Amino acid sequence: MSTEQSIHWLDWGDEAFQRSLSEEKPVLLALTATWCHWCHVMDQTSYSHPEVISLVDSRFVPVRVDVDQRPDLSHRYNQGGFPSVAVLDHQGELITGRIYTPPEEMVQFLEQVSSRYPETGEADGHPGDEATPVPAAAPSAGEPGSEVTSVLQRMEEMYDATYGGFGYEPKQPPWDGVGLLLARYGHTRDRNLLRMATTTLDGIQVGLYDRNDEGFFRYSVSRDWKVPHYEKMLCTNASLAVTYLDAYQLTGRRAYRKAGLGAIKYMQSILFDQPAGLFYAS
């Protein structure tokens, strides 16, 4: 594909955000990885679609980041899997985002976001020019702040009541989201939060847990978790080991204990380099 027919990506840095401010355009951040199958699919489909290219180059400041080179940006802006698409204002604040999106949906998404900017972000003025906000009342002990409440509401909207998890295929194991649900259940004893967490954990264990060699596969190509992408990552297994053992402590379900310990066993036996004292990433 020629340069004229592709998105003109920038590196993460001051240039991109200065352009966002001066041109009053949001930043479109693409989080990708060389090992990510769906990242390559999105490059070959959505990011190669003429209308997507036109919209991105005319209405956004496009920035592309390899998550292995910038794990800090991956941690901050990951939308639940890879590829992640995050829309930011000129100060780097997240406006909205999503994971893999096919071309037709991507066109709609780009049109909707760009038509509402800067109302959706904070593009007016310069950093430090904003009026001093009135401090919100501190939540009482055990009560979540407004940010946590907003996240929980969004999770309920995206929750897949049939198979667990959030959104549709491809489906990434949402260990941070499940951890939040478990933590809030510990405070509130809200059975709905526990149901969301356990349905998700049950689906992941059925579809992504390797019963032969133990450990978890990276993600599912299908909504029901049963078509895994056959790759095992250190970050996936470390995060899910913690999540499943936390769930075991909260619920007493032995299946969660077995899964958590199995993930640890896999990391120690397969991913750990004894002479070097280091773990392989995958």
Automatic annotation (TrEMBL):
One of its GO terms (biological process) is carbohydrate metabolic process. This is Spermatogenesis-associated protein 20-like TRX domain-containing protein. It holds the Pfam family Thioredox_DsbH. InterPro entries: 6-hairpin_glycosidase_sf, Ssp411, Ssp411-like_TRX, Thioredoxin-like_sf. Residues 3-109 form the Spermatogenesis-associated protein 20-like TRX domain. Residues 118-145 are annotated as: Disordered. The lineage of its organism: unclassified sequences, metagenomes, ecological metagenomes. Transmembrane segments: none annotated. It comes from marine metagenome.
